[in-house]
What we know:
Layout: E1 13-16, H1 24-33, H2 35-38, E2 43-47, H3 49-59, E3 65-67, H4 73-76, E4 81-85, H5 101-118, E5 124-125, H6 131-136, H7 144-153, E6 162-166, E7 171-174, H8 181-187, H9 190-208, E8 214-218, H10 233-247, E9 251-256, H11 264-267, E10 272-275, H12 278-288, E11 294-298, E12 304-307, H13 324-341
Parallel strand pairs: 1-2, 1-5, 2-4, 3-4, 5-12, 7-10, 8-9, 8-10
Antiparallel strand pairs: 6-7, 6-11, 11-12
Helix pairs in contact: 9-10
Amino acid sequence: xxxxxxxxxxxxxxxxxxxxxxxxxxxxxxxxxxxxxxxxxxxxxxxxxxxxxxxxxxxxxxxxxxxxxxxxxxxxxxxxxxxxxxxxxxxxxxxxxxxxxxxxxxxxxxxxxxxxxxxxxxxxxxxxxxxxxxxxxxxxxxxxxxxxxxxxxxxxxxxxxxxxxxxxxxxxxxxxxxxxxxxxxxxxxxxxxxxxxxxxxxxxxxxxxxxxxxxxxxxxxxxxxxxxxxxxxxxxxxxxxxxxxxxxxxxxxxxxxxxxxxxxxxxxxxxxxxxxxxxxxxxxxxxxxxxxxxxxxxxxxxxxxxxxxxxxxxxxxxxxxxxxxxxxxxxxxxxxxxxxxx
Length: 342
């Protein structure tokens, strides 16, 4: 059976290479092999075809590659994995980043954003990067999210990126992201919560097709502060944010005790949990949906999704990497692109 793209005229997805020494290449090859079985949307990889061919041989996978221009990728997808060259070679062995790793990963991200902004791709899907490898090469950003915001700013005002972790069971957004807990508390403000929640509500309408998104805002402290006896931040910072959002017509509740927000019955009462710091949001979703969670960056002028896992150097090149999260990221990107186009 030949692969049939779900939406006539849909643009393929631009998939970055990620850290070459990690499992990004492995799950990319595995996902393409399941394209017909799972009716996956068309995608192409931005990277080094010779490197991907070598990894496929090491994994014992028969994956034909087609080095091709982005505008031809959709037509090629059924017969071969399309690869769009970035001009940066990758030479790393599985589990062993080398001097080529950082530039190969960065060039792939830059080209993916350029392609989607030019209309050649419908969305950006990013494979995992190794931040420590990028930092050693002078990378100045905490991670993907902040780098994508800078690339988006090249054509205008810098957006505020918002990180969502999504799965069919739960969607979460941390208000503060990759900072220490001490710094997260220092950064937290009513304005930041309101701005984040506005972006979440707008994105749920535009990209997820929800007419009236329901947001549940966690408290910062245990038991949401217990009326101030366990900390004043929930009454002084979080509650005013909820009140502002409700006056604006956004269906928001909180501050809610975080320890009772994530059981099955509670999850049915909201569409997204907006949490005050990184682990408060990510621990529940990674417990419930470790294999098929998706990282989504909201607030950008283009769609970006990513697998919700890291580079997994210890299993790279072994054939043990699970492509489920990448497959979920590709499907969600397709869904979001279709919602925006409708």
